[in-house]
Amino acid sequence: MKSTLRSRMLANYEQMSTTDKIIANYFLNNESSLTTKSIHTFAQEIQVSSASLSRFSKHLGYTGFPELRLELTSMLEDPNDFRINEFDNQEGELNKVRSIFELDQRSLQSTYNLMTEKQLTGAVDLITKCTTLGFFGLAGSNVVALNGYFEFIRTPINCFYSSDYHLQLMQASNMNKDDCAILVSQSGRDKDILKLMEILKANNVPIIVITSFSNTKVASGATILFRSVSDEAKYRSEALHTLITQISIMDSLFFLCSFKLGTAMSDSIEKVRKVISETRY
Q1: FRET label pair with 277: which of 62, 89, 223, 247, CA 20 to 30 Å apart?
Q2: Rg for the chain (alpha carbons), in Å?
Q3: Using CA atoms, how far apart are residues 22 and 91, in angstroms rounded to an integer?
Q4: What is the pLDDT at residue 90?
């Protein structure tokens, strides 16, 4: 199935209504026979109303079912298309590892397909013009936040990070409208991360959110939202491969900001390299 449609369904799957999940499951499991059918035929086979199909299309960001069907019609069979059940049939460790790499590649491509020039430009402007840049995340998402801090500390931007939740609360309470927060949450539904969001919003802090699901309170509170996608989300309750896509989003922001900062970035990198070189023999 064309990656953009698949990406949209997987990115929103957990937050879908029961009816939308039924429709999404049908599309994901019957890709080869979708393009020649009318909305009424689809509705009969899925056992939902035509209105439900129309609402499903709009929930995914299409103007209606005709636009979604147009994308279905333009599908090309991808010889590199990966299905998780193929992993069970792989013989040899190297082939299994190849399947894992292919899944990662699909997840990265799906995440890239959801990015826009406006998102990236806006995020770079917020980061490079802020007084202080803060990184927030809990549990597995804290790893992504740490990775971001590890990269951006090389820039001339004043930034901070903490692995402790209470310290994050205190740091968030001291931020203001001239600062910028990067908040990472795979599910977007964690109560503690929502508390951090509320504190930042109360202080009018611009917030860049990296998450897998767009239909959450955390996502809706973002100044700029980046969605990370993992095809594994369809098959497991916790999408482990989302970690790779979220770190890749953070990497992308770092490199774009580096280009924007120009000479100041070069000077900062040189200072860091000089200090680190003194620790080696």
Answers
A1: 247
A2: 21
A3: 33
A4: 63
Q: In what order do the strands lie in the sheet with 132-137?
A: 158-161, 132-137, 180-185, 207-211, 224-227
Q: What is the mean pLDDT of residues 257-263?
A: 90
User: CA-CA distance, 253 to 258, in Å (whole number)?
Assistant: 8
Kindly give, in sequence order, each residue whose CB lies less than 8 Å from that of residue 276, ignoring residues fewer than 6 positions away. Answer: none
Q: What is the pTM of this model?
A: 0.71
Burial label, 209 (beta-carbon count in 10 A; 0-12, 13-18, 19+): buried
CA 94/CA 205 separation, integer angstroms: 47
Statement: residue 212 has pLDDT above 90: no
Q: Could you give the dihedral angle defined by the CA atoms of residues 92, 96, 97 and 101, in that order, rounded to the nearest 10 degrees?
A: 150
Token duo for residue 128: 């490079």
How far is 10 from 40, CA to CA, in rounded Å? Answer: 24
Backbone angles phi, psi at 55, to 5 degrees: -65, -40
Token pair belonging to 238: 């916790």
Q: Could you tell me if 149 and 134 are in contact, meaning their C-beta atoms sit under 8 angstroms apart?
A: no
Q: How far apart are CA 20 and CA 243, in angstroms?
A: 26
Question: Which of the 8 DSSP states describes residue 131?
Answer: S
Question: Which is more confidently placed, 144 or 232?
Answer: 144
Those residues with Cβ within 8 angstroms of residue 109's Cβ, 6 or more apart along the chain or in another chain: 3
Residue 261: half-sphere exposure toward Cβ, Cα within 13 Å = 23
Between 35 and 172, residue with greater pLDDT = 172
CA dihedral for 31, 37, 42, 45, sign (positive or negative) = negative
Which residue in the block uniquely carries the two structure tokens 């931007």? 157
Give yes or no for residue 134 having a pLDDT over 50: yes
